[in-house]
């Protein structure tokens, strides 16, 4: 079965999503790009991002995390539980002794949730193949959930993680055959990034293709703020989707 554009009804009872069709309008998508928001957020910012990406041959799906934040805080998260840690790399921490809300959690429940979305909906209903044409793009904890999936659950076409690393809860016995075939792009700022050399090296050991993008003049790990910062991510995506489109989009 050739891939088709997913519809809201395909996800009914499974997940909260927004779906942005591939470009040009009416074209058949060859890939599915799933956007995973950060800790405590919703799909709203990534739904807006999906429209701005304007990608050829990719159905872009903004996916809401399955666990709501407690105490009526609003937003959702990908971890099995909320975790507080003393992380000097966190922008919310004024010192190494401060405990901050950490994205580094267990992802067992989200792993099963994402597997259901990818296998039951995208593969079985819509004709995609995870290893060939499903891409995950996550920010912060969403990036960690994406890397968890690619390391322990299934081969994916690619993973893009902005400010997210392989979760510390990933155990060697859970990792599938090495090296993993998923292409990985890790992105972070040039000052105070959570993508440390040790975390980068660990990812390089697990994945056959793993590259890092350092966003200049960025403190910490933020989503790209302009076309120049987004360009490396777009190049990575366009090389997968339609290599010839690089020149057309001005990223040659």
What is the gist of this entry?
The chain is α/β, with parallel strands linked by helices.
| Class by SSE composition | alpha/beta
| Percentage of residues in strands | 15-25%
- Global mean pLDDT: 91
Instruction: Please compute the radius of gyration using only Cα atoms.
Output: 17 Å
Total number of β-strand segments?
11
What count of domains describes the coordinates?
1
The CATH topology corresponds to Rossmann fold
> Outline, from the CA principal axes?
globular
Q: Based on the coordinates given, report the CATH architecture.
A: 3-Layer(aba) Sandwich
At the fourth level of CATH, the homologous superfamily is: Alpha/Beta hydrolase fold, catalytic domain
Helices, by number, come to 7
Report strand order across the widest sheet.
1-3-2-8-9-10-11
The level 1 CATH classification is Alpha Beta
The amount of helix comes to 25-40%
Give the biggest sheet.
7 strands, mixed
Outline the low-pLDDT stretches.
90-94
Q: Span from first to last CA?
A: 33 Å
N-to-C SSE series?
EEHEEEEEHHEHEEHEHH
